Amino acid sequence: MDYVDVIYCHRPDSSTPIEETVRAMNHVIDKGWAFYWGTSEWSAQQITEAWGIAERLDLIGPVVEQPEYNLLSRHKVESEYLPLYSNYGLGLTTWSPLASGVLTGKYNKGNIPADSRFALENYKNLASRSLVDDVLKKVNGLKPIADELGVPLAQLAIAWCAANPNVSSVITGATKESQIQENMKAVEVIPLLTPAVMEKIEAVVLTKPKRPDSFG
Prior knowledge:
Blueprint: E1 4-10, H1 18-30, E2 34-40, H2 44-56, E3 64-66, H3 75-80, H4 82-88, E4 91-95, H5 124-130, H6 133-149, H7 153-162, E5 167-171, H8 177-184, H9 195-205
Parallel strand pairs: 1-2, 2-3, 3-4, 4-5
Helix pairs in contact: 1-2, 6-9
InterPro entries: K_chnl_volt-dep_bsu_KCNAB-rel, NAD(P)_OxRdtase_dom_sf, NADP_OxRdtase_dom
GO molecular function, one term: oxidoreductase activity
Domain NADP-dependent oxidoreductase: 2-204
């Protein structure tokens, strides 16, 4: 490609000064290779430092962050990054909306389907950590809410992520074409997530992070 719209610094590089990264990304933009740059899995402190450097040097700061975000993992998006949305207009491209497949409901009985990613050797440790009773209890509690709306649990979980006003887009993983087609139908579920439905979801997952009193 001649250029990309956005280039991400995937994971922070502890061996490289952030100023060097900011300068490098602006070089890429100046060359016309990208229009904007963003970060992936950076902390709020690192993003703030990058913006401070960019403003000091009259350069472009990161406009988007790519964090994990789902019904079971919410702290960064809903707590740590809160001041960044208003201070820098930061957008989010989130990943793992289904928590590695846990929020599809296919592991509800503790069984691991042979064709699922948790059946792969590389994922066995992840499976043992994720398929704990507390998580499965929450997933089981979400299923009736999805049934009431007449949608698959996976679509409900993806729609929930996309409904966050600070989320610009949601990255969905898939191993089959049919999964992609099903996941995209989540767009139609977003309007169904009324305040009442969202309250039901919160009552089941109990994962909403406590909002900090200040950012001093």
